[in-house]
Structure formats: C-alpha cells, structure tokens
C-alpha cells in the first residue's frame, strides 16, 4: 500500500516526495511527521474540480483545519484557492498569523467564547457557523455593540447515524452539536436569527461524522438537508442561499479499506443534490464541503526508530503463544488515535521497504502505558535501529499530539520533488519547561 509519491527506491528504501526516508531521518531525526505536499495539493484540486463538474451551482471547498493546521499548511490551502475551517481561537490565530485571507475563513465551535467571537468579528471572517441559541444571542449582542453584522450559517443535526466510531459521530439526534431538525429547534433558531439586527443569516450546516468508508449516510444527510431547506421555505417564506454539508469522507488506513475516491464521492453527492433540489422545487444553494482527513490523511507518514524488540511467551487457554513487541521512539503522544478510537494503521520498514513481510509484530510506543500503535503487522525481520514508517498519519496526529510523559512533540517536514523543508520544529526539552513556573514559596 503506497500512496501519492511513495515508492521503493533503488536502495530498497521508502521514498516520499522524491526524498529517501532514511536520509530524512538522518537529517531531521525521529519521530518525524512527513507530509507529501504534492498529494495535499492534488487532493485540493481534485475536490475543487469534482465539485465544479458534479454540482451545477456555485460551490467552495473549505479545508477543515482540525485535521492538521500549521502556518505552512495555511499557505498551501490559500495557494490552492480553498477556504479554511477553523474551530477555535487558536486555529483562527494560526490562520491570521499566516496571513490567510479572513474572508475565506469559516469559524466553527460548539462553545465559542466571547473572546473567540470577538476575534472572529474583528478579523472579518467570512462565515461564523453558529451552534446553539446561546451563541446566537451572544453574537447578535456583540455585533450590535460593535455596529457590525455577522454572516452566519446555523449548524443543524439531521438525525443520521453515520456508522463510524461513536466518538467521531456528530449527526445523530443525541449529540452536543447543532440544533435538531426533528424536534423543531433548528427552525426556531432560524426564526430567531432572521429577526436579529446583528445577524445576516445565510444558510445551514451539518457534519454527521468522520472517517466514513461508505457514503450512504452522507447522501442521506444531503437529502434530509434539502428537505429541511424546503420546510424553511414553506414555514418562513425564504429560500436559503447556502448549504454546508461538512466533511467526513474516509481514507485508507489499511489495505482492506476501500473508501470511495474524492471524485466518486462528489459525483454521487452532486447527483443526489441535483435530484433532491429538483424534487423539492428549490434552486441550487451555494454549496460548501469541509473535508479534512481526505485532504491530508494519506499524504502523511510518521517515521520512528525501532529500539527494543521483545519476545513475550505466554499460555492462553492452555496453549503456548508468542508475541513480538517492537518498541518505537514515539507513541500515544504523537498519535493518540489507536487508543482513543481503536484506530488501525499499516506500516512498512522504511530501510527495508523492498523486503517481504515474514514476521508478525506488535508495534508499541514508549509511554508508561500500553500504547500499542499497531496490534499486528507483518514485516520483514526487524532489528534495533530500523526505521518504521506508519502510513496515513497526515490527519489528526500532529493536531492531537501531546507532551504526555514529557515527550517533546516531533518535527514535521514537507517533501516535494526531492526537497524536504521543515514546517514544524522539533520541540526541545527546554520547550517542555517553558511554561512551567516554580511558585515563590517553592523556590530554593
Ligand atoms: N467539519 C466539521 C464541522 C467537523 O467537525 C469536522 C471534523 C470536519 C468538517 C472534517 O471532517 P473530516 O473530513 O476530517 O472527516 N479526531 C478524530 C476526528 C474528529 C473529526 C472532528 N470533526 C479522528 O482522529 O478520527
């Protein structure tokens, strides 16, 4: 399973973006996040052109920054002409620091603070997606005080089970997100928004869940949303101008994963929308899609150095078992997904990429708990010092990284046409204590 520009080079090493991963490790150390810039750019273009081909109305792709956001990533997204979804003051600050055009920023969050809303208004973000009535009132008040109007979408929940891990579901009726369509909350929110002086209400948003390998639920959500647009028209006499269907398209973490391609997804979504809009007698709204994982996920690998390799023998149900643990120099601090969502990953031995898998290994991290990254992967015989490349780590790894056990966060490099450029510096031990304060009464 090789993605984008990944290949096995003449030396039998894994190459990505024209760079030998063994050389990358010599230069930048481990653990190391590596991002294939060309693949990210291609995914942006594929989304844009698929939307143009398969949806006849106006549309825009909004990259969901929660998947991976740094100032460098903002530049790529800006250059590719996408909008950017930020979901906190910190993400907004990152985008503004990178000079991302504020009018192309869409601000999310289910509990935005007054400070976050103020920053959004002062910087002139393109859209604020309002999650609840409390926020709606807060925003209206803030706008009236500032003599501004906010262009908003309202997040609604279509009541659909997306069939994914329950921690990343968001569209079902029992959720903290948005206003429920079925119980009337969504309509009530819209009614109030329309009456507010500080609010320019433009449309509705939904996001039903993430890492969806089947698009049935996404298509169903699109139909429910269009029906809701019709209900709004019938009840309030207005046709909403904008519709945002969120993100959610899954990626390949394992060779057995088979999500639809970007084109197939957008094509089916486009035709579902066209049909549904026609049936409901509506004109085409401006359509936003908010992919995160499917833009950056497969473009990333994480390189680790293998250290201790331990054979563990035990008896299970009276039978002898043997397991081989290969320990890497990272783990749940640079990738918490296996522990959080039982996420599965695939790996190759970067310095032995031409060799066949022969032995089953369990890949474990170096944290003070059972931070297994991969429970079972077939690899060529491992030795201490080998470099392990875990694939499909571009999304929700660096962005969810921590300093657990006081491990410095890894560096991240962008690779493209044989060149590697740092876009996140490796943290140092000094960085770890930077925010620490020894209170005066504890001083020596
Ligand atoms: N829009 C909204 C409002 C979202 O909440 C999300 C993701 C997206 C777009 C992008 O979804 P994507 O295309 O990436 O599926 N940390 C979890 C994923 C959480 C997703 C949260 N929302 C994970 O590692 O799987």
Number of domains: 2
Which strand-content bin applies to the residues? 25-35%
**What would you give as the CATH superfamily of the largest domain?**
Alanine racemase
Mean pLDDT: 97
CA distance, first residue to last residue: 56 Å
Query: Which architecture of the largest domain would the CATH scheme give at its second level?
Result: Alpha-Beta Barrel
Shape: globular
The percent of residues in helical segments reads: 25-40%
Broad CATH class of the largest domain: Alpha Beta
Major β-sheet annotation: 9 strands, mixed
Return Rg in Å. 24 Å
Number of distinct beta strands: 21
User: Pairing-aware structural class of the strands and helices?
Assistant: alpha/beta
- CATH fold naming of the largest domain: TIM Barrel
Bound molecules: ligand LLP
Q: Which ranges are low-confidence, i.e. pLDDT below 50, for 5 or more consecutive residues? A: none
Number of helical segments with 4 or more residues: 12
Description:
- The chain has 444 residues and is of the alpha/beta class.
- It folds into 2 domains: 7-30 and 299-433, Lyase, Ornithine Decarboxylase, Chain A, domain 1; 37-293, Alpha-Beta Barrel (TIM Barrel), CATH 3.20.20.
- Helix content is 30%, strand content 26%.
- The protein has helices at 21-28, 37-54, 71-79, 89-97, 114-123, 133-146, 185-194, 216-236, 262-279, 293-296, 337-341, 429-433, and strands spanning 7-8, 14-16, 19-20, 32-36, 59-64, 83-86, 105-107, 127-130, 150-157, 179-180, 199-205, 242-244, 286-289, 300-316, 319-328, 347-349, 359-364, 372-379, 387-391, 411-416, 419-424.
- Strand 7 (105-107), helix 5 and strand 8 (127-130) form a beta-alpha-beta unit.
- The chain starts with 6 loop residues before the first strand and ends in an 11-residue tail after the last helix.
- 47% of the residues are buried.
- The mean pLDDT is 97.
- It binds ligand LLP.
- Residues 64, 66-67, 85, 108, 168, 207, 210-211, 246-249, 290-294, 337, 341, 396, 400 line the site of ligand LLP.
- Ligand LLP binds at residues 64, 66-67, 85, 108, 168, 207, 210-211, 246-249, 290-294, 337, 341, 396, 400.
């Amino acid at each position: 399973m090789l993605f984008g520009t990944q290949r096995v080079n003449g030396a039998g090493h894994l190459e990505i973006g024209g760079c030998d991963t063994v050389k990358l490790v010599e230069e930048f150390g481990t653990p190391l996040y590596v991002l294939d810039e060309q693949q990210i750019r291609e995914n942006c273009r594929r989304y844009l052109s698929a939307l143009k081909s398969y949806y006849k109305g106006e549309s825009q792709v909004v990259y969901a920054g929660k998947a991976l956001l740094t100032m460098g990533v903002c530049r790529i997204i800006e250059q590719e002409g996408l909008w950017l979804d930020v979901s906190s003051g910190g993400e907004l600050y990152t985008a503004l620091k990178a000079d991302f055009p504020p009018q192309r920023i869409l601000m999310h969050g289910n509990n935005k603070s007054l400070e976050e809303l103020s920053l959004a208004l002062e910087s002139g973000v393109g859209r604020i997606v309002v999650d609840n009535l409390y926020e709606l009132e807060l925003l209206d008040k803030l706008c009236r005080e500032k003599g501004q109007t906010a262009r908003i979408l309202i997040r609604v929940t279509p009541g659909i089970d997306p069939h994914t891990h329950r921690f990343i579901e968001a569209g079902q009726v029992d959720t903290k997100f948005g206003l429920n369509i079925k119980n009337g909350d969504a309509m009530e929110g819209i009614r109030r928004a329309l009456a507010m002086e500080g609010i320019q209400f433009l449309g509705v948003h939904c996001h039903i869940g993430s890492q969806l390998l089947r698009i049935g639920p996404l298509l169903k959500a699109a139909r429910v949303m269009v029906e809701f647009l019709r209900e709004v028209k019938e009840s309030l006499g207005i046709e909403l101008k904008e519709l945002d269907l969120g993100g959610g398209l899954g990626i390949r973490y394992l060779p057995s994963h088979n999500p639809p391609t970007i084109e197939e997804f957008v094509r089916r979504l486009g035709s579902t929308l066209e049909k549904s809009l026609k049936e409901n007698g509506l004109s085409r709204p401006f359509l936003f899609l908010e992919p995160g994982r499917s833009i950056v996920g497969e473009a990333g690998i994480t390189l680790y150095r293998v250290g201790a390799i331990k054979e563990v023998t035990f008896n299970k149900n009276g039978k002898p078992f043997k397991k081989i643990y290969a320990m890497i120099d990272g783990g749940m601090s640079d990738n918490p997904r296996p522990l959080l969502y039982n996420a599965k990953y695939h790996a190759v031995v970067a310095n032995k990429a031409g060799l066949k898998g022969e032995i089953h290994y369990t890949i474990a991290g170096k944290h003070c708990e059972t931070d297994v990254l991969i429970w079972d992967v077939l690899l060529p015989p491992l030795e201490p010092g080998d470099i392990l490349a875990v694939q499909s780590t571009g999304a929700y790894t660096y962005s969810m990284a921590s300093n657990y056990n006081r491990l410095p966060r890894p560096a991240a490099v962008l690779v493209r046409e044989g060149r590697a450029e740092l876009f996140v510096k490796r943290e140092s031990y000094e960085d770890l204590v930077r925010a620490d304060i020894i209170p005066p009464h504890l001083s020596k």
